[in-house]
Amino acid sequence: MANTTAELEALLVQRSLTDPQLVAAVDAAAEFRILPDATVIKIGGQSVIDRGRAAVYPLVDEIAAVRKVHKLLIGTGAGTRARHLYSIAAGLRLPAGVLSQLGASVADQNAAMLGQLLAKYGISTVSGAGLSAVPLYLAEVNAVIFGGMPPYGLWMRPAPEGVIPPYRTDAGCFLVAEQFGCKAMIYVKDENGLYTANPKTAKGATFIPKIAVAEMKAKGLQDSILEFPVLDLLASARCIRQVQIVNGLVAGNLTRALAGEHVGTIITAS
């Protein structure tokens, strides 16, 4: 290891950061997983939280129960209020970075509300998903809540078309799972998973239990259940090589997914 580290240091000093030999040397270094026993759960904004008490209360009870045996990083989506903000801001011709900040404010509101509901269990909300006190919260109560929007703000990469931020809460939660080297990434939505078409509007839509990123793109399904940049993030990830989408409106689905069951749709990197 010492020789490998010395070689890598020499390359870093002598070469461009995009030098092929340097990139290969960096890839050869072993990954250090910061929170390998934790699972990131993304609670949908429009699909779950916007439905109010009927959808959220049962999920709160389920989270309170499962965190006794699972370490959870709980990210919140932005949902309908963010879409309303996006429509106004886009009409005002504001850039993607500004829209990103607006969307983050709504995701943070949802995190705050979920945090109040789970406060009696000692589960806290953190501002941003940086480590900060997260390891302490996980050690004490096995769970913590954060707003799922990635903290790019004005540094948001513009989308190829339009001004809607391409990296939103699905991407933000995935990045937390990947960068912390977590055990799994679960998306809690209001559908059983991925379908061949939108099951809310297409009667003949067929459920897809498992699929790879390349197949999703080939079939034109890249924007049908997750934000499509998540697929590129998944394809290049080193720790999180698959994600699962489950229906959070069905009691017990989250518990089963955390236990390792194939509940909804699993999307694999390759």
Structural commentary:
It is a single chain. 40% of the residues lie in helices and 16% in strands. The protein contains ten helices and ten strands. The strands form two sheets. An eight-stranded mixed sheet has the order 3-4-2-1-5-9-10-8, with helices on both faces. The mean pLDDT is 93. It has 270 residues and is α/β, with parallel strands linked by helices. Helix 1 runs antiparallel to helix 2 and helix 7 (169-179) packs parallel to helix 9. It is globular.
Q: Quick one: how many beta strands?
A: 10
String of helices and strands: HHEHEHHEHEHEEEEHHEHE
Helix-residue proportion: 40-55%
Helix and strand content put the structural class at alpha/beta
Give the percentage of residues in beta strands: 15-25%
Oligomer: single chain
End-to-end separation in angstroms reads 30 Å
What is the average per-residue confidence, as pLDDT, rounded to a whole number?
93
Largest sheet, strands/sense/barrel: 8 strands, mixed
User: Which ranges are low-confidence, i.e. pLDDT below 50, for 5 or more consecutive residues?
Assistant: none
Strand order of the largest sheet: 3-4-2-1-5-9-10-8
Number of helices: 10
**Overall outline:** globular
Radius of gyration: 19 Å
